[in-house]
Specification:
By secondary structure, this protein is an alpha+beta fold. It is built from 3 helices and 12 strands, in the order ααββββββββββββα. Strand 8 and strand 9 form a beta hairpin.
Length: about 210
């Protein structure tokens, strides 16, 4: 029988295929570490390439991390927002039912321009929130710290936008290393794993 001819190596390959259904999808985000445009060692006001801003053009931009005494940045620069400004970018055009999306952003409070609150979140068409962190008071140590929000998609098709917001008036919040991943619903792989277990049992009996 064909079941009898299955080797342990073949069963292992099937197991690897089943487990790979849980591998995370990593999405590409435009200018995710705000390395463009080159701030020439200081800062540049304006919407970073790949991002749009909700308020004045001058209330967001990119800055050299060393210039603003920031530590832990992924590259030479960080993005920033002040005066209750939000910046956002589109990442996923079609959302997959049952998938859990995780947005992670490194956030810091500038030591000489201390932030008293920020939000990170995922939104869809019309600004409808999918998952929002709520107002967070960042650690006041001029160092980047990672913050995350999760969203499991249950209806509709998308798209998904990432939004980063300063919520502290004239104070400044710095953002860096924006990343988005998704994993499928765990139950999606159960039928395949069940079949694998049955094959292994039948092989042992024969």
């Amino acid at each position: 029988m064909k079941i009898k001819s299955l080797s342990l190596a073949a069963l292992a390959s099937i197991a690897m295929a089943a487990s790979s259904t849980h591998a995370a999808t990593v999405y590409s985000i435009a200018n995710s570490s705000f390395e463009a445009p080159d701030a020439l060692g200081t800062y540049l006001a304006g919407h970073p390439p790949g991002w749009t801003g909700s308020a004045s053009y001058y209330d967001c931009g990119v800055g050299n991390a060393a210039y603003i005494s920031m530590t832990g940045a992924t590259g030479a620069q960080v993005g920033y927002a002040l005066n209750n400004t939000s910046i956002w970018t589109g990442t996923v055009t079609t959302l997959t039912l049952g998938e859990t999306y995780t947005l992670t952003v490194d956030v810091a409070s500038r030591s000489d321009f201390t932030s008293s609150g920020f939000q990170i979140g995922m939104f869809t068409t019309g600004g409808t929130p999918l998952a929002v962190s709520g107002f967070i008071d960042p650690v006041d140590d001029s160092a980047m710290h990672a913050y995350s929000v999760n969203y499991t998609h249950t209806s509709g098709s998308g798209p998904l936008y990432i939004m980063l917001s300063n919520a502290s008036g004239s104070n400044q919040t710095s953002f860096d290393n924006v990343r988005l991943t998704s994993v499928p619903e765990p139950s999606a792989a159960l039928p395949l794993l069940g079949a694998l277990g049955l094959l292994a049992l039948l092989r042992r009996r024969r």
